[in-house]
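writing this on my phone so excuse typos. first protein, seq and then structure
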Amino acid sequence: MPSIQTKRPLPRLGEKQRNSLDGLLQASLTALRLFVKNELQNHAAATAFYFLLSAAPLVLLLTYAAQYLAVLAETSTPAVMLLAALYEQFHLDQLSTLGVIPQKTQVAAGGVGLLTLVLSSRGLVNAVQSAFRVIFPDESKRPFVLNWILPLVIIPLVFGLVVIAVAVQASLTFFANVELLGTASSATLKGLNLVLALLVVWGLFYTALRRLPLSRPPPRPTMLVSALATLTWAILFYGFGMFFQVEKYQAVYGALGGVVFILIGAYFACLAFYFWAQFLYALTKVDVAALEKLFLGGTGSGASKLEGMVFGRSNRLLAKYGHHFAAGETLIEEGDTSREAFYLYAGKADVHKRFGDIEKHLGELDEGSLLGEMAYLLDEPRTASVRAKTEVTALVLPPAMLEELMRYSAPLSRRIIGSLAQRLMRMNQAA
C-alpha cells in the first residue's frame, strides 16, 4: 500500500519535548485512575499486614545472628564490623524497645519463628502477586508447581541478598570511620554506602516489576520506574521519621504502639510501590489510553474535564501514527491483504466497491471514522476501497495496536462492532 510510505512532517523544535510531557501527564492520570479503580489501597493494606508478620521472624533471626556475632566479636574484628552494621542498618535496639522483637534473654522460640516466617512469607508473596494480577491484567497463569514454590523461595532469597549488602556496607562503614583515611575519603565511603543501599532497593524493585507480571514490561521503562520508586521510598523513609513520632503511637496504643507505627509505615511504602507499578503499566499503555479518548471523545463533566485537558492534544499521536493523504489518493485498496486500521483525524473519504466490472460508491466517511478494521477482525482481504475525497490526515494503526485497543476498552470494542455491523448493512443494501 504505497500511501502508508508517505513521509511524515518533521515536528517543530520543542515539539518532541512537549509530546514527551504530554505522554507523562497522560500516563500519570491513567495510573491514578486505575489505582483508584483497582482498589490498590486495599492490596497495600494486606501486603503491609503480611510484611509485618514476615518481618517479625526475620528480625528474630537477625537477633540470633547478632547474638552469635557478639560471641565471635570477642576474638574477630570482621565480626565486630558486621555486628555494628546489623544494629545500625536494622535498628535492632529500637525494634527491641518498640516490642517488635523480644529482649535477648527472652529469645527462645526459634522453631515457632521459622514456621511463622514460612507461612507469612507465602501470604506476603501471594498478596503481592494478587496486586500484580490486577495491575498487569493477563489471562495466562503460572505453572502450578512454580506458583507453589515461589513464595517459599523468594523471601529467603531476598533476605540473603540483604544480608550480603549489609556485610558490604559494614566494610564501607568501618573504613569510613578510620581516622587515617581523612575527611574526604571518609565522606566518599559514606556516599558509596548510601549509593549501595539505593542500588539494592532499586535492584529489588526492578526484579519485582520485571519478573512478577506475566506479560513483562519493557526494560527501559521498568528501570526508570524502579528508580522513581526507590527515590519515593527514600523520601518516605526520611519524611516518616521526621514527621511521625513513635512515642505518640505508644501513648495511644500502649505496648502495641511500636507495631502500629511500623504497620503504618509499611502501608505507605506499599502504596507507593503499587502506584509506581500501576504507573509502569499506564506508561506502556499510554498510546492505547490516548487513542481511546480520541476515538470516544469527551463523555461528561468533572473528572472528564481534567481528562479533556490532559488528552486534548493529539500532536503526540499524530507524530507517531499520523499520515497525510492528498485528495484522490487511496487509503485502502479492495482485495489488498494489509491489516492496518485507519482513523480519519481530518478530511473526508469515499468508499467504493466493485460488483463485477462496475465500481459503486457506497458512501462517505467523515472525520472521526474508524475504518479498515474488518480485514483484521475477519482475517480476510479488504472488502472495499477507500479514497481521500479531500486532503486527509489519518492515524494508521498496526494490527497489534487495534488488538490492544479492543482488549483495553470495552466501550471502544462495542463501537467497533456497531460500526462494522452498519457497514455490512450498507454493503448489502448496495448489492
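second protein below, same order as before
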Amino acid sequence: MRAGDILLSVNGNEINDVLDYRFYTREEKLTLAFQNRKGAIKHCRIRGDEDPDALGLQFETYLMDRHRSCKNKCIFCFIDQLPPGMRDSLYFKDDDSRLSFLFGNYITLTNLTEHDVERIISMHISPINASVHTMDPELRVQMMKNPAAGTSLSLLRRFSDAGIAINAQLVLCPGVNDGEALSFSLSQLALLEGVQSIAAVPVGITRYRDGLCPLRPFTSAEAAAVIDRIDAFNAQRITEGKGSLAYPSDEFFQICGRELPGPAYYGDYPQLENGVGMLTLTRDVFTDALTDAVPDSEKRVFSLATGRAAAALMRSLAQAFCEKYPGAKITVYEIENRFFGEHVTVAGLLTGRDVIDGLLAQGFSGGLLLLPDVMFKSRQERIFLDDVTEEDAARALNAEIRIVDCSGEGLFDVFFESVTS
C-alpha cells in the first residue's frame, strides 16, 4: 500500500471512518481491500493487532472522514459568544459521536442517524458522553432550538438497554433548567441503568452576548442551592443502598464560596475532565507528593500565572511547598480575563495578551514563569487563543516560560525541579 491509496474494506467490512477501522482491524488475520492511485482494486493479507496504530497505516485525516458539526442553536452556546476575528477552528461546533468515544467529547445525540445508533450498539461503543441539559423534552427543544432535541432523548434509553455506559452533562442556566427542572432531570436519568455519572456545570457567560438569549451567571445563593439539591439527591440514593450519581462542578463551590469537598465526595472521579473534582484531586495528589518528599535547602525562585478559578488553590499549594522548602520563593499571579469578561475564570480561556498585560500590571519583572498547558493550543502548537505565541510572551515579559501539566503530580515535580543556580 502506498500514499494516495484508498482503503475500502477489512475482512469484507466496509471502512467509512476511524471507528470502522479500529473495530475491524482487531482480528488476528486481516484481508485489506484497497484502490490504488491508478484505480485498480488490490488485496493484501496481514496480521492484525490489538492496537490498530501498530499496523502502520496513516490517513489523510484522523477521523478518515469530515468532522460532524452541531445542528443545534443552544441558548448557552459558548462559541456563539466568541468575538469575530479569531482563528477559524475556534468557531467550529463539534457534535461528533466518534470524538465522544475516542477523546471524551460530549455529544447532544440530535444528529445521530439510525445507522449511527445501530453501529454504536453493535460495536458496543462505550461510554457515550451525552450533553443532556434537561430530561424535559419540551424544555430541551427550547434550550437547544432544535426539534430533534426532545425526541433524541429516547436514544439514552436505547443505549442504556444495550449496555452502553453513559456520562451525562447538564449545563445549568439559572431560572431555566435548575431548581425543580434539575430535580426532574436527575430523577429521570437515575432510571437508566446505563447512566454512570451526571455532571452539573454552570453556564459560561462572556461579554459578547449581544443579540443572544438573555442569560446571566449564577448568584452565590443559586449556586449553593444547586449543590444542596444534588447532595439531597445523592443522599436519598445512599439511603436506598445506591451510590452517588450526580456531581456539581468545582465552579459551583467557587461561586458560593464553599470549601471544596474531600476525595470521598467524588468516588472514582467519573467526570474529572468536565471540571468535577479536578481541584480536589490536584490538591490531594500534590499534598501526598509533598508529604513523601525529602526536604532540602535548594534555592527555588519562580512565578506561576493562572486564572481566578485556580488561583486560591495554587497559592495554598505554593505556601505549603515553601514551608517545607524554605529556600523556595513562589509568586502566584491571578490573571483577570479581560478578553472574555470577568465571569470567565478558567486558565484555559486566558489569552496571551491578558496574561502579558495582567503580569506586567502586577509588577512581574521577569525570570522563570510557569504557565498551565491548558492555556496553549497544544504542546506542539504553543499559541494562546489570540494567536500570541509562547515566544511572543517570553519576549514581552523577559521570562523563561515553562509549560506545566497542572495535575497534582505534574505541579509538584515542576516545583521541585525548578532549582535556581
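Residues 6-55 form one domain. thats all i got for now
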